[in-house]
Design a protein that fits this description.
This protein has about 450 residues and is mostly helical. Helices cover about 60% and strands about 5% of the residues. It folds into three domains: about 130 residues, Fumarase/aspartase (N-terminal domain) (Fumarase C, Chain B, domain 1, Orthogonal Bundle); about 220 residues, Fumarase/aspartase (Central domain) (Fumarase C, Chain A, domain 2, Up-down Bundle); about 55 residues, Orthogonal Bundle (Ribonucleotide Reductase Protein R1, domain 1), CATH 1.10.40.30. The chain starts with a strand and ends in an 8-residue tail after the last helix.
């Protein structure tokens, strides 16, 4: 491997000739060898978008000449399009502001732009990573701007589509089973009848509310603090820079971002991301509930509830032949656990801002992007490999219905709560049907029982 010499304010350092980055990235590689979690590709691409927008705005404001701006735009677009992903080697556990990552982006864009111009890879001529790529910016405003933009686009483009497809597939089942009568359950005990469609409609409503919470989160995420530079007062950013950046970023992202009305809040706090993470946690909780309901309803297949049949995707045991497990619901519940953990990390980190900067930004960004990705992936997997081919076992539903003591509730208006309770206790302890217990106690005639205790009349 051959090397070239790069320099920064700390001095000179050797960088592999094949790399686009410069001295600050190389120095960070030696100082932050912490774990294996690298910056997510989606965040890298977003940072490229912001640097592209900055080159355009700096050109419009005559801070950069056209030739330099074009070189930066071309290199930044390659970052945005994922063509240079292998040039971002830093772990997320770096400076809490993300300085080393911002410089990694600046150096890669400069290094690639210098190569495009006909020069050597890397270096600072004709494009300088600080003076040109980072012009009118600071890590302190570009990094949180990238966080908000990446989070908003992940919610819109990555999570919402598979979440909505899952919601729509569950809605299809709810509509198909509007008249499929089954036993309700409260406290894990038998309750009055309902339909399978009613039960599933509750799941659909949970996901509807979850998507509404995403919409609410997007409102705050759309405020971006670019132009605040180091502490929020905009030092070294010219007049008109912030609104022009908001317009340029909006155009590139096809999303309505706007200049943060208070950039001090945008740098010192990450409340928008914390709120959005809360929405993800709520969605994860909804998915946990839905997945647990599905695997309980599908338990058995012969000695459990067995009211639902779910696809048999793979062998379930290394020792018990023929066993099949509810692996898709289990995957959903594990993702929910991880999202809850990510949210706890984000909530704690978001509370730790000091004065004009929160310095827990990289770990918050990584946790949020991780939650978006795994929620999106598991929604798609759960829908395709479980929900689409899920079917109702109506025979089992009818069997459990006949044996339920909860049907005695229908007698309350006719004989009162106390007598109905006495019928239920007698049926349970003497292993009788409700009808036989009611007749033996002399409280209800058989023909009245058949008329009053009809599950189809009890579903509301």
């Amino acid at each position: 491997m051959t090397y070239r010499t790069e320099s920064d304010s700390m001095g000179k350092i050797d960088v592999a000739e094949e790399k686009y980055w410069g001295a600050q990235t190389q120095r960070a590689l030696g100082h932050f060898a912490i774990g294996t979690r690298l910056f997510p590709p989606r965040f890298i691409h977003t940072y490229g978008l912001i640097k592209l927008a900055a080159a355009r705005v700096n050109r419009q404001l005559e801070l950069l000449d056209a030739a330099k701006a074009e070189l930066i735009e071309q290199a930044a677009r390659e970052v945005m399009n994922g063509q240079l992903d292998d040039q971002f080697p830093l772990a997320i556990f770096i400076s809490g502001s993300g300085t080393q990552f911002n410089m990694n982006v600046n150096e890669v864009i400069a290094g690639r732009a210098n190569e495009i111009s006909g020069g050597k890879r890397g270096g600072k001529t004709p494009i300088h990573p600080n003076d040109d790529v980072n012009k009118a910016q600071s890590t302190n405003d570009s990094f949180p701007t990238a966080m908000n933009v990446a989070a908003a686009l992940a919610l819109r483009d990555q999570l919402t589509p598979p979440l909505k497809r899952l919601r729509d597939e569950l809605h299809r089942h709810a509509q198909a089973h509007q008249t499929t009568v089954k036993l309700g359950r409260t406290h894990l005990q038998d309750a009055v009848p309902m339909t399978l469609g009613q039960e599933i409609s509750g799941w659909v409503a949970q996901l509807d509310h979850g998507m509404n919470k995403i919409d609410m989160a997007l409102a705050h995420l759309s405020e971006i603090p670019i132009g605040g530079t180091a502490v929020g007062n905009g030092l070294n950013a010219p007049k008109g820079y912030a609104p022009a950046m908001a317009r340029a970023i909006s155009e590139l992202a096809n999303f309505d971002f706007r200049e943060a009305p208070n950039k001090f809040e945008g740098l010192a706090a990450n409340d928008a991301l914390a709120f959005a993470s809360g929405a993800l946690r709520t969605i994860a909780g909804s998915l946990m509930k839905i997945a647990n309901d599905v695997r309980w309803l599908a338990s058995g297949p012969r000695c459990g509830l067995g009211e639902l049949r779910i696809p048999e995707n793979e062998p379930g045991s290394s020792i018990m032949p023929g066993k099949v497990n509810p692996t898709q619901p289990e995957a959903v519940t594990q993702v929910a656990v991880r999202v809850y953990g990510n949210d706890a990390a984000i909530a704690f980190a978001a509370s730790q801002g000091n004065f004009e900067l929160n310095v827990y930004k990289p770990v918050m960004m990584d946790a949020f992007m991780d939650s978006c990705q795994i929620l999106a992936d598991v929604c798609e997997s759960f829908r395709v490999h479980c929900v689409e081919d899920m079917t109702a076992n109506t025979k089992r539903m009818e069997e459990l219905m006949r044996n339920s003591l909860a049907l005695v509730t229908a007698l309350n208006p006719h004989i009162g709560y106390d007598k109905a309770a006495e019928i239920a206790h007698k049926a349970y302890h003497e292993e009788l049907t409700l009808k036989d217990a009611a007749h033996k106690l002399g409280y209800v005639k058989p023909e009245d029982f058949d008329q009053w205790v009809d599950p189809k009349k009890m579903i509301g």
